[in-house]
Amino acid sequence: MTFEIDRRNLLQMLGLAAVSGSVLSQANFAFAQGADNVTIGWPSDVPSWDPNLRFVPDAQPLFKMVFDQPLDQSPDLKLIGNLITKWELKPDGLSMPFEIRSDVKFHNGDPMTMEDFKYTFVDRIKSGLKLDIANSWRTLTDIEILSPTSGVMKFSAPTPTAPQWLAFLGSYLVPKKYIESVGPEEFAKKPVGTGPYKLVDYQMNSRIVFERNDDYFGTKPKIKRVTIDIIKDPSARTAAIQSGQVDLTVNIPVREAERLGKTEGLTAEINPFTRLILLQMRNDKGFTDMAVRLAAHHAIDKAALSKAFYGGAAVPLSVPATPGTPGYLPDYKFAYDPELSKKLLADAGYTADKPATFTLAATNGQFPSDFDIARALVQMWQKVGLKVELQQIEYSKYFELNRGGQLPEATLYSFDNATGDPEIFSGYLMNPKMPFGAWKGPEIGDKILKLFVEPVYEKRIAGYKAVAQEAVETGANIPILQSVQTLVKKKSLNYVKYGNAWVLGSTMSWS
Amino acid sequence: MRMFATIAKLLVKRVLTAIPILLLVSALLFCILRILPVDPAAMSLPPNATVQEVEAMRTEMGLNLPLYQQYGIWLNKLFHGDIGRSIHFRQDVTSLIGSTLPATIELALIAMVVATVFGLAGGLFLFYVRGTRAEAVMDFLSILLLSLPEFLWSLFLLLIFGVFFEVLPFTGRLSPGFERPVVTGFLLLDSLITGKISTFLNALQHMILPCLALGIALSPSLMRVLRSSLLDVYQDDYIQQARLRGLSEKRILIRHGLKNAILPTLSLMGVQFGFLFGGTLLVEIIYSYPGMGNLMVDAIRNADLPIIQGAGLTYCIAVLVISIVVDSLYMILNPKLRAR
After folding, report:
1. For the complex shown, is ipTM > 0.95?
2. Is the predicted pLDDT of residue B324 greater than 90, yes or no?
3. How many angstroms separate the CA atoms of A83 and A287, rounded?
């Protein structure tokens, strides 16, 4: 049999090619770079446009486009005024008088009032709606309104981190009048905030389009329209920035970031931020003996882990706090010393025939290279004579296992704290009543519980520094690395770098 | 008329059979998800919730009731159109599925068209070149196509057409700057209804790569089944008789060979469509396509059992519907079946 291309077939094929060509010729899909537009490839979506509903750290930069928090953070993470201009936590930590701006309007034109504050932080929570901020403002009993621009937050117990929480997860001011008129479901569909941008289009798991709020009370953003493309797959994000379909993207593999940084027109950054990679430790089972815990810590070559998995950009840590935050101890170093590990194990009576054994749990894919780090840890421990079994767990299981006391001796974990406050680092990780950490030892736990109600800032910070060092020296916690955020952008796009990895469209401009 | 009556009878029979299947699938789904070692109560609260709060939530969600009671409550709600409320998104699962399903159906249908075109054309070509060197080459190619899963095709096509040649978009359903018409949720249809041709073309461009990835992965099995069916059919006497009547090879192939060989391929297409729906999960993630696959991945990551149950049931309904449609087509195309 032979192939024959007759005139009819040829015409049919040409017709098909013409149709395909006409579709492809419309391919002006790559959004032209212009002073008024920017497209960002972001790895995750918001769970809802009700910003008080769920705590999702990666969604905070998206919420901050539409909503404002009472307080804000500067790029170096210092607390600064925003909707609230003055605040002062009373010495007993039981109340906090504050003053608000009088020139703020919601996107629908309604003025922001003290009623909106009371509604957001008290009334809405008490109404029975299932909001995550109900958990962060448990001790807030009331907001007493003194004047149209002043009020007092009242707490049932000392709440020393109230100012920090006013700039943290879920604490976004929402409009009372609007929500009461349209209902919470409609509010989540058409959110109205006071933020620098208005939400003009949203397609779940695909695209968010913001347009500048020209009536914004703060610094007016330079970019008029910000488009967020939700691209969950790291390879697709890499391809999107490389092909110019987005102007900036984050959280791509370190090697890809380094490669793209050498590409013409692009620049790459590997930025450490306020996220810890650490080992959650138990105080029982195979870790009852402090010598084993300390031997495990001394055996870890953190610099090698950083070099192998994060291009050397992840900072090795000796305490559960990141550099530049109040609880960090810059002069304290926990040594990498495998020989000391061996000695500690030998002194404790462990030998090659009778090795110390324990289990390490790790997630696979929850944060970059997590399971690879776990495998490397097992090898490092083997070298000093520790026999370790590696167990993979789902992130969604972590809290359940921890609540049920079923985590193994060590768990590789990452912990995010955009505020940088030590309560949300050492405090949350070592508080025996909270589900974040596995350590339930009373010596450290009691100290932490006291610091939770310590209202004097300096005393509180000093206390956390001391307890962080004690936790490390007793093997109650093994901090490993400061996590990094990779960022690749077009060279001509400027943005403000935040110590907590916020990437805000409102700070961007083209040069 | 008789044909329609037979098909109607078949439809009624298949719909009645589908009801117990759906009930069985719903029970299986429910039990399997409850056996999984995840705690939906804990997942529905922020990490700093206390043990007491988790327990209270467990009671509120009815998770401390016996499994059969939980299933009964869920089924009762299902009959009243309430699939449940998402743990993660805190929205009705019905509305979440309703807002994402059209995108997936659109994607799957066009991918099926791609698979059919490639599969039929490839199958015909394979048959056409039988016994030649080209057959060995085509065999090798079809095995190569068959051995690559959808997500690898997705990445491969993305790199070739999105990054290397930069001719096709690969994120979302529309380029920035295009307004999204919302009428039915089917973007291609909506852009035509609202008369936005440029939006239609742009949406079509965005569908090319994900549909190719899904379609190419399915087409080799169609090719191979069609080729072997054609080989069987060509052993029959009527082909020889057609040749004796002086009909051209092309006419014999199209009018006689293909018409009879298409039936097994059609059955396979029905089965493949079910797989294709499952294949959308990773393809939608890679192409940022806002469909049900993307939602399902979110649900799995967050142990959002109500969404997983709802989406699982939706997949089951889709497969049953497709199977009924294929059976009806089979009946139309095969007079022997109608005669039974």
Report:
1. no
2. no
3. 48
Determine the residue among B113, B114, B171 to mutate to test chain A binding: the one whose Cβ has the most chain A Cβ atoms within 10 Å. Answer: B171
SS3 content of chain B, % helix, strand, coil (to 5): 75, 0, 25
Choose the most confident range, by mean pLDDT, from A466-480, B1-15, B320-334: A466-480
Give me the residue from B44, B158, B167 closest to A27, CB to CB.
B167
Residue B11 pLDDT > 90: no
> Taking CA atoms, what residue in A is nearest to B42?
A400
Share of chain A above pLDDT 70, in %: 93
CA distance linking residue A346 with residue A292, whole number of Å:
10
| CA-wise closest residue to A36 among A194, A197, A160 | A197
User: Cβ of A54 under 8 Å from any chain B Cβ?
Assistant: yes
pLDDT one-digit tens code per residue, B76-104: 888 888 888 898 898 999 999 999 999 99
Using an 8 Å Cβ cutoff, are A314 and A257 in contact? no
pLDDT in tens, A114-156: 999 999 999 999 988 889 999 889 999 999 999 999 999 999 9
Domain extents in chain B: 101-305
CA distance A487 to A256: 10
Question: Which class for B24: exposed (0-12), middle (13-18), buried (19 or more C-beta within 10 A)?
Answer: exposed
Under 8 Å CB-to-CB from A24, ≥6 apart: which residues?
A: B167, B168, B205
| Residue of A153 and B177 predicted with greater confidence | A153
Using the Cβ of A351 and the Cβ atoms of chain B, whether some distance falls under 8 Å is answered with no
CB contact under 8 A, B202 and A29: yes
Question: Residue A225: helix, strand or coil by DSSP?
Answer: strand
Q: Do B303 and A244 touch (CB under 8 A)?
A: no
Q: How many CA atoms does the CB half-sphere of A17 hold within 13 Å? A: 6
Quick one: CATH architecture of B101-305?
A: Orthogonal Bundle (1.10)
Please name the member of B42, B53, B295 whose beta carbon is closest to the beta carbon of A400.
B42
| DSSP-assigned beta bridge partners for residue A105 | A111
Cβ atoms of residues B204 and B188 within 8 Å: yes
Compute the distance between CA of residue A104 and CA of residue B146 in angstroms, rounded to an integer: 60
Distances (CA, A) of B53 to A159, B65, B269: 20, 18, 50
**Is some CB atom of chain B closer than 8 A to the CB atom of A397?**
yes
The whole-angstrom separation of Cα A303 and Cα A315 is 8
**A48: chain B residues, CB-CB within 8 Å:** 89-91
Residue A19 has a pLDDT of 54
Of A54, A227, A236, which is closest to B288 when you measure between CB atoms? A236
Distance CA(B299)–CA(A149), nearest Å, equals 43
Q: pLDDT tens, A66-81? A: 999 999 999 999 999 9
